[in-house]
Amino acid sequence: MHSSKTLFITAVSSGFGNALAQEALAAGHRVIGTVRSEAALQAFEQLSADRAHGVLLDVTDFERIDGVVATAEAAHGPVDVLVNNAGYGHEGVFEESPLEEMRRQFDVNVFGAVAVTKAFLPYFRQRRAGHILNITSMGGTITMPGIAYYCGSKFALEGISDTLSKELRPFNIFVTAVGPGSFRTDWAGRSMQRTPRSIADYDASFDPIRKAREEKSGKQQGDPQKAAQAMLQVIASPTPPAHLLLGSDALSLVRDKLRHAVSEIDQWESLTRSTDG
Fold it and tell me: Half-sphere exposure of 74 toward its Cβ, with a 13 Å CA cutoff?
């Protein structure tokens, strides 16, 4: 039996959070999972009588987070791994999407993850141990039309994760940004917030993209259970990566993006160098 760990996972009711909680429990770990309803809490705790502990928390309820984390540490800790999984996708043409929808997207995907991380850091630093997994997306490295706010939030979380991994290395705390490609979760279905169309100019370019995304929902290549198993391997590693892509679609899209970025840098190199002193 490998060493069992205590994981704190945000949003364990569906998607990657649910898959990871189930795999972690099956592997003998203890899981503290955040949910947003009493019914979801009971459903989660039924997964294991003694090792599944539900916590009622919306990650945008920032005033409550420190207290929730302190209580979890006292009751079920010490927590070894924090998994910032809570998040959703906003889809909409940039010009059509109100600022309020961007603010909400960042509140959940960025500020929520940051606030929960901040609450755990004093414990991790004191113990000189800990691992933080931030569930980002291939959309934290590549972009696609119609998900500007989502990609913006995931780019932000990737940048924060990478910086944090450098700040926390002296304390033996690891940070891994996990970037999944397309998986059979609710991301493009139930949990996606879609802004209604309003500007006809975008019909030709965007409507087929929205339609394809809706039709593909539930049929994606990625298996959330296999993603969860991959995350457990990262958690077990003594030297986890700062970034991990999941899925061959993420792999090829990100590789293409990096190749293109390098060739564009090369193409404009002389102009870039021309600004030196």
Answer: 6
pTM: 0.96
Could you give the CA distance from residue 84 to residue 93 in angstroms, rounded to a whole number? 27
Give the active site residues: 150
Give the Cα separation of 277 and 275 in Å (integer): 6
pLDDT, one tens digit per residue, over 174-223 is: 999 999 999 988 776 677 899 999 999 999 999 999 988 888 877 888 99
Q: What's the rounded Cα separation, in Å, for the pair 264 and 188?
A: 32
Residue 153, pLDDT > 70, answer: yes
Separation between Cα atoms, residue 60 and residue 214, nearest integer Å: 27
The number of angstroms, rounded, from the C-alpha of 72 to the middle of its chain's C-alpha atoms is: 21
Phi/psi at 52 (nearest 5 deg)? -110, 115
Shortest CA distance to 158 belongs to which of 130, 182, 179? 179
> Which amino acid does the sequence have at 189?
G
**Position of tokens 């929960």?**
116
Q: What is the pLDDT of residue 105?
A: 98
